[in-house]
Design a protein that fits this description.
By secondary structure, this protein is of the alpha/beta class. The chain has three domains: about 270 residues, Ribonuclease Z/Hydroxyacylglutathione hydrolase-like (Metallo-beta-lactamase, Chain A); about 150 residues, Rossmann fold; about 100 residues, Roll (Ubiquitin-like (UB roll)), CATH 3.10.20.580. Helices cover about 30% and strands about 25% of the residues. It contains 16 helices and 24 strands. It has an eight-stranded mixed sheet. A six-stranded mixed sheet has the order 8-9-10-11-12-18. It has a five-stranded parallel sheet with strand order 14-15-13-16-17, with helices on both faces. Helix 5 packs across helix 11 and helix 14 packs antiparallel against helix 16. The chain starts with a strand and ends with a strand. The relative contact order is 0.12. The structure holds zinc ion (2 copies). One zinc ion binds next to loops.
Amino acid sequence: MADSLEVIPLGGLGEFGMNSTALRCNGDIIVLDAGVAFPTHELGVDFVVPDLTFLKENQDQVRGILLTHGHEDHAGGIPYVIPELPVPVYASRLTQALVSEKLKEHELLERTDLRLLEARDTLRFGAFEIEPLHMTHSFPDAFCFAITTPAGTIIWTGDFKFDQTPIDRRLSDVARLSEYGEDGVLALFSDSTNSESRGLCPSEFSVYEPLRNLFLRARRKIVVSCFASSLSRVQVILDLARERGRKVAPIGRSMVSYLRAAFEIGYLQMPSDLLISLNDVRSLPPEEVVILATGSQGEPMSALSRLAINEVKNVEIEEGDMVILSARIIPGNEKLISNMINHFYRRGAQVYDSDHSQVHVSGHGYREDLKLMMNLVKPRFFVPIHGEFKQLKTHYLLALDQGIPAENARIIENGDILELTPTSLQVTGKLTASRRFIEEGVAEEVHDLVLRDRRYLSEDGLLVIVLRMDRLEGDLIGEPELIPRGFVDESAESLMESIKEEVVRVVRETNPEEKRDEELFKEIIRKEIKRFLRKQTGKRPVILPVTLVI
Ligand SMILES: [Zn+2]
Ligand SMILES: [Zn+2]
């Protein structure tokens, strides 16, 4: 239909992470965000990114990808999207810097057309005119997009809260939002993450005091964990470390590279000698050290988890150390996190998280923030975005409370084709939106987990490794038993022997604490043997370690 705008969410609705949405108007398509999700249950898969079929089928219409900000759930998918869909990527300076780090890792930086977007710029693509507006969030350089089309203007909030004292003192662009509101906004698409939380979201500034109190109390090393891309929080931690005369050792690949990238372009303020490397930690007294680590979700191979079991060279967790988890718990990760916390306690460290004091605040607006957004923008139509279904629904009901007629508000889900005209809003169709599974180190993507496992099974077979242990943290009894199905040939006997030797080596080198954590132990065996077999045979059988405590 002429003068209609189609909004097609490819991910991020009804789930956590993987935000990406296509907008189409008069034969032009723009894509808002390209995020990843981190699955916790799909064994052997590192990331999930949205299915690109729709965009690839219409590639000649795609004008570019616009990123609201640099968090993983919005920008983390770029390295997996660009090889398939080589279109320009528009982003704020900081987002661009972080995305560049990711692209470098994937050797894609040269091939990617990255373009700088500044707040209040105007971008035109055919039927679209886009103005990015600065918004406060736990990321210092985040945008909301005001997108004007022949159908009308829509406001796409991105992740936001109305923070009156952001760490960098740059406020949300309330003035422009209300101007758009005065001129008439067709539809508001707004962040639903905290639609269930009453009141106003506390300012990022409010974490200073609780964190400062902990820093004052600490007598030995402090380990702080937060998301590497939450650079406002990183700034707070750097400030407090400097105040207390401590040096900061970052650990975790993204922490190290994001810190450097943000510092280079002036988005992190610190004396140039504040940062030290992990190698320098031993040469300083413990009361002069802060370790800033990724891995707040307890991911088994992350920096923080490795610290928890003393698997990091040059750094040992000792009696009296303090560990601060300055991040939210993503639902589903509770068990992993509590395992990790137990390891820290076992070493004599004290662990503080947001249950204990306010060492974390959300970057997403609460109900009063969300109402303020609606009241500034005064949209005709309302669509909740960014959240699980219950958050979308709660946000939808909040909009009705604010006086938006029920027929003017709509909950949409991934793959829905929402058509907007100056007078109507309706779902006119549905794409078969699915997801892509990415396994790091494997060029080819995994389309479907069941299919993948079946393929590995049919091509490369199955290997069950039975480990008899005297107790979980103890020694092997006898040698490991191997039960191969479908991947052995004539060279099998010597291969089996070398696998056994490898298993024995891995068990010997795994420390008792890791062994006691049965899931972690099996994951270590699985990963090591997978790597070994790939090197030795080029095959990827499905590996199932089984531990029997006798
Ligand atoms: Zn965010
Ligand atoms: Zn987000």
